[in-house]
Amino acid sequence: MAHPSGLRKTRPVPQRTCVACRRTDAKQGLIRVVRNAEGRVVVDPTGRLNGRGAYLCPEITCWEVALKRHHLERALRVASIEPDVSALLLAYVRDLETTKI
């Protein structure tokens, strides 16, 4: 059904907050990290994986702060993130930053 004025209604853009810097941005502007059903923490580039999610800015400083201050563990409700998983997460965002340039 068309809008009475002939204009289409625009959908609101979903907003999310970075768990490290607390900056609010469009959902597509942040990167989702998920704790899946098996309890593993993985990056969700599509934003559609099942599990508990947390959002981070695509900047290495936010990822370092989130890991160092345990913001990511708190948001994902996990006891701890293994050092090898932390290294993989940091490698992922470093790779993003190098391809962005």
SSE layout and pairings?
Blueprint: E1 15-17, E2 24-26, E3 31-35, E4 41-44, E5 52-56, H1 60-68, H2 71-76, H3 83-100
Task: Give me some keywords for this one.
single chain; 101 residues; alpha+beta; 3-stranded antiparallel β-sheet; two-stranded antiparallel sheet; globular
Please give a quick description of this structure.
The chain has 101 residues and is α+β, with helices and mostly antiparallel strands. It has helices spanning 60-68, 71-76, 83-100; strands at residues 15-17, 24-26, 31-35, 41-44, 52-56. The protein has a three-stranded antiparallel β-sheet with strand order 4-3-5. A two-stranded antiparallel sheet has the order 1-2.
Structure description:
The chain is globular. Helix 1 packs antiparallel against helix 3. It has helices spanning 60-68, 71-76, 83-100, and strands at 15-17, 24-26, 31-35, 41-44, 52-56. Helix content is 33%, strand content 20%. The strands form two sheets. A three-stranded antiparallel β-sheet has the order 4-3-5. A two-stranded antiparallel sheet has the order 1-2. The protein has three helices and five strands; from the N terminus they run E-E-E-E-E-H-H-H. It has 101 residues and is an alpha+beta fold. Strand 1 and strand 2 (24-26) form a beta hairpin.
